[in-house]
Design goal:
The structure is a single chain. This protein has about 550 residues and is of the alpha/beta class. Helix content is about 30%, strand content about 15%. Among the domains are: about 5-85; about 465-544, no CATH class. The protein has a 6-stranded mixed beta sheet.
């Protein structure tokens, strides 16, 4: 509820708007100055009466033990009383509500139950890391055994950073791609996982340099993502801030409030460790979309962090959008981002002295028989995760969400930072007359489909683009769904024209693929917006 002076000012503004009426009624005769003075006096008298009445009402309410601040007592209802405002559970924490964006509701949300997945093969893929050498140095040969936490390979350009095995078992394959590049190192997992023992330093008594060295050797460093450019962090740079989003608004995204259950201690420990690695703050983005239900207590009661609540439509849950509205990246700065499960893994290392890369993965999509959560480990084999659960073997399998995820085959592996698998129809059937005959409902912002009449309807998605690539035209659609202070249409054109100065001036360093995924979804021209953005980021990186 707003304070009384604010409401009184609202009355004054409302009554002032009636001045033209007084002026018109006096047009037949009388002095305009006299009429204006009379109208002003009337306004002041009415304002005083409303103020007095509201105060008397509050005094009387307090006599009967009624909390007027919570119950919203007022002599008349106000416009603000009918509009959702800052949820009461937020208190004094920062609250940011975004107006731009679009939520895509799809069929196939994971049920809130966890099954233990029977996965036999796991892989670490160099291709999951931007900027890594195509042929990293592999530490083991096929047939050798590893423990969870043993270093499997390292990047020759940053040879101190180790990429560790998520499970124990035998190295059964080193898969290669074009020009003999290494695409995956595959481990056949033991039935009972054996962990490498680590001599974990005390965060209270260890310097930042020693802590960084430990992160390098234990596989924890690879869990961190550095912005701009979305790469494994440069060890020589200290991040200005660290950002963690505790909710995801992408289609069918896993529920962080469900995943965090039972991991409260590990999450808080991970936050404590991360706070030692930045010169700034650890920022926690919390879900403020529900006016009545607060996020999980683990997030709300987290200590040693700067909290901000966000409300709005997707991509409000993206950490990049939160960075833009809390502490934008300045020239020469870097910031780190992590998911909640990466934070949990760091916390477990410092609590239990082992590299525990276990993950809760959401299996989602309309083409699954039973969309559920499963417990497995980082880099799990997709076929093992989905065995017996596919409605149609010809479906499209995506590691991640439908907007920014990557297509994988059943024999492929979960991408390093993904905690979701989505399975939808392939959409390779021709549609008669296309959008000219919009018979079947589909997720779209186009007015051709009256989706606004059914705000809670969940769609059955497929991969059909309903059109072909054409010239990029100015429609204003990108600006409707991208809640950042930039001109996305101009940015993408600057990238295509290789105009480095314009790219940087238009804020390319603040964005990553998931942030502009909605732009690609709504694009009338069917342009690969995410691919264009990555092209621009790599160009800027090469020139920096």
């Amino acid at each position: 509820m707003k304070t009384l002076p604010t409401k009184s000012a609202g009355i004054l503004i409302f009554l002032m708007s009636s001045l033209p009426v007084f002026a018109q009624s006096s047009s037949a005769g009388g002095s305009p100055l006299l009429i204006g003075l009379i109208a002003t006096c009337v306004i002041l008298v009415l304002w005083a009466l409303f103020t007095l009445a509201s105060n008397l009402l509050k005094i009387e309410a307090k006599k009967h033990g009624i909390d007027t601040e919570k119950s919203g007592f007022s002599i008349i209802p106000w416009i603000s009383d009918f509009m959702p405002g800052k949820p009461k559970y937020i208190g004094s924490d920062r609250y940011i509500k975004l107006s731009k964006g679009h939520d895509i509701l799809l069929e196939g949300e994971a049920k809130p139950e966890i099954h233990v997945a029977d996965v036999h093969r796991f892989a670490i893929k160099p291709t999951d890391f931007h900027g890594m050498s195509p042929i990293p140095k592999v530490e083991f040969e096929i047939g050798q055994s590893v423990k969870a936490g043993d270093p499997i390979f390292y990047d020759k350009k940053m040879d101190t950073i180790q990429y560790c095995s998520p499970v124990s078992g035998e190295i059964v394959a080193i898969e290669r791609g074009e020009k003999r590049s290494i695409s995956a190192v595959v481990v056949l997992a033991d039935k009972n996982i054996q962990y490498k023992n680590f001599n974990v330093p005390s965060i209270e008594q260890t310097s930042r340099e020693e802590l960084v060295d430990f992160f390098h050797s234990s596989g924890l460093w690879a869990l961190i993502n550095e912005r701009p450019f979305d790469r494994v962090p440069d060890a020589t740079k200290i991040p200005a801030n660290i950002f963690i989003s505790t909710f995801d608004t992408a289609p069918l995204a896993p529920d962080a409030n469900f995943i965090i259950e039972g991991n409260q201690e590990s999450f808080q420990k991970g936050l404590d460790v991360l706070s030692k690695l930045t010169s700034g703050k650890v920022h926690l983005g919390l879900d403020g979309r529900d006016s009545k239900k607060s996020p999980h207590a683990t997030f709300v009661n987290a200590t040693g962090v700067e909290k901000a609540y966000f409300a709005g439509k997707h991509p409000v849950g993206n950490v990049g959008i939160q960075i833009h509205h809390v502490a934008p990246i300045k020239a020469g700065q870097t910031v780190w981002t992590l998911g909640i499960q990466e934070v949990i893994t760091i916390g477990r290392m410092f609590l239990y002295q082992k590299f525990d890369a276990s993950r809760i993965i959401a299996l989602t999509g309309s083409e699954l028989k039973n969309p559920v959560y499963v417990k497995t480990f980082l880099g799990a084999n997709i076929g093992d995760l989905l065995i017996g659960n596919l409605k149609n073997p010809e479906s499209r399998i995506i590691s991640g969400d439908v907007l920014s995820g990557k297509q994988v085959h059943a024999d492929g592996f979960l991408c390093f930072r993904d905690d979701q698998v989505t399975v939808i129809k392939e959409g390779n059937e021709h549609e008669l007359f296309g959008w000219l005959l919009p018979i079947e409902p589909r997720p779209s912002i186009s007015g051709t489909f009256p989706n606004f009449l059914y705000p809670d309807h969940k769609f059955e998605a497929n991969t059909n683009t309903h059109g072909e690539k054409r010239a990029m035209v100015v429609t204003g659609q990108y600006e409707e769904v991208l809640p950042v202070d930039t001109y996305p249409q101009h940015l993408f054109k600057a990238i295509l024209s290789n105009d480095l100065e314009k790219m940087e001036g238009l804020g390319i360093l603040e964005l990553t693929e998931e942030d502009v995924a909605l732009c690609e979804f709504v694009c009338t021209s069917k342009n690969p917006i995410q691919q264009i953005l990555r092209q621009g980021l790599e160009t800027v990186k090469e020139q920096s």
